[in-house]
Amino acid sequence: MSDKTALAIRKMIEYNAPDLRRINHALKVFGFASAIGAGENLNDKELEILEASAVFHDIGIHKAEEIYKCASGDYQQKLGPDVARPQLLELGYSLKQVEEICYLIGHHHTYTIKENNLLQMLIEADFIVNIDEKEFPNETDYEKLRDKIFVTETGKKLINSLIIDKAK
Questions:
Q1: Which residues have C-beta within 8 Å of that of residue 28, sequence separation ≥ 6?
Q2: Domain spans in the chain, listed from the N-terminal domain onward
Q3: How far, in Å, CA of 87 to CA of 121, rounded?
Q4: Which fold has domain 3-167?
Q5: pLDDT on residue 1
Q6: How far apart are the C-alpha atoms of 137 and 18, rounded to whole Å?
Q7: Comparing C-alpha atoms, which of 143, 101, 110, 149 is closest to residue 127?
Q8: pLDDT digits (tens, 9 = 90+) for 90-141
């Protein structure tokens, strides 16, 4: 983990405190995103962008709840980049990195963009955590969900070993 990523985690915790549920969610997504990124052989620069986007992926939730009284994924995507941008710049991310991270934050609930590897890894990490946190209460066919959403080999291995094999 880079120094910037460690600082990003602290910044996210400060921003979300005392909302431990949201802090824990972000940390779990960060952990899975890091594992997927490493498993898919990302270089250090790519991994730093993926990790920062995982840390801040839901940073728009509190703003969405304040404005819309709802934490919908669409509102998170709409509001998250503007909440994250000044924090990322303050942490020393370059403007190019900030725009890449904000793109990922602004699309992490858009499951149809398969050509962006970093976005795909973020989506897969978030899905694993959301399944574990019972965010899909009516979903029981995790194999179908895996086949529809997951693209990376590492992500597929993780959902298989953590969710699908466990459910059998």
A1: 129, 132
A2: 3-167
A3: 22
A4: Hypothetical protein af1432 (1.10.3210)
A5: 78
A6: 26
A7: 149
A8: 999 999 999 999 999 999 999 888 889 999 999 999 999 998 887 765 667 8
